[in-house]
Amino acid sequence: MSVFWTVWISILLLGSIVGCYVLLKLAQKGQSGEDENVKTGHQYDGIEEFDNPLPKWWVWMFIGTIVFGLVYSVLYPALGSFQGFLGWSSQGQWEQEVASKEHEYAAIFNKYAAVSVKELANNPEALKTGQRLFANNCAVCHGSTATGSRGFPNLADKDWLYGGDAETIKQSIMNGRFSNMPPWGSVLGEEGVANVTQFVLSLSGQSHDAAATEKGQTSFKQFCISCHGAEGKGNVLFGAPNLTDNVWLYGGAKEYIAESIGLGRKGVMPAHKDLLGDEKVHVIAAYVYSLSQ
């Protein structure tokens, strides 16, 4: 926080506290004494005005709040960048609570880590833990039920870009994945993209134009088989999808396929090793593996 904002916040806070004290003194000013029922001489419609002093308990309570405000401002971070003499911070408290819970649950996660992912997928309690971890860290992309959405893989079926065995799933979560489908629009041209699109439609048994498909097959063999294979069945080493089934990460309609070919695709699955650690990733992997079994 800059010096300006530190000074500005301090002036507002301390000024408000001082203002409360001044307000109290002004309220007491001019009172004739501690006796009650002292008349001011003002009267209207039979109603007389009295100048009674403020109740002692109320005055001391008000002073107490002023003292509390001053003490709090000195002990805790209330004056801009000043951290307070206690050195407390919300982040520090959060880190302390997290460390405490990490220590508390360490034994549970260590017990799960001693079991293989495949075997752990049969442990109901471990799956409940994995589901909660998935909801907090993975559901934002893959959905609460792990069925994904356009651009985010469905983890509940048996179609996997990099392989669906237990250890491969764990490695995907641990280290992340990065796929790069290069754009071919500038190489193929508009007509070429349309032709390859028709050929890809034919691979998955969709309606297609025969003449355009024949031309697109030639381009596919020239530019695409290095990743997707001669039969278009993909390659788990590159994360190249199988084009012969009816499972599409970015949509299987003609316009979506043409968009993928022409503009390319870049998919990023962030690594969670440093964020969650091996033990928690192990449990999430077991949960994800169980979804497709």
What would you note in describing this structure?
By secondary structure, this protein is mainly alpha-helical. The chain has three domains: 3-88, no CATH class; 91-176 and 271-291, Orthogonal Bundle (Cytochrome Bc1 Complex, Chain D, domain 2); 179-269, Cytochrome c-like domain (Cytochrome Bc1 Complex, Chain D, domain 2), CATH 1.10.760.10. It contains 13 helices and four strands. A two-stranded antiparallel sheet has the order 1-2. A two-stranded antiparallel sheet has the order 3-4. Helix 7 packs across helix 13. The mean pLDDT is 93.
Nearest-integer average pLDDT: 93
CATH topology of the largest domain: Cytochrome Bc1 Complex, Chain D, domain 2
Rg from alpha-carbon coordinates:
35 Å
CATH superfamily of the largest domain: Cytochrome c-like domain
The major pleated sheet works out as: 2 strands, antiparallel
- Class by alpha and beta content: mainly alpha
- Can you count the helices? 13
Detail the poorly predicted runs: none
> What are the secondary-structure elements, in order, as H or E?
HEEHHHHHHEHHHHEHH
CATH class of the largest domain: Mainly Alpha
Shape: elongated
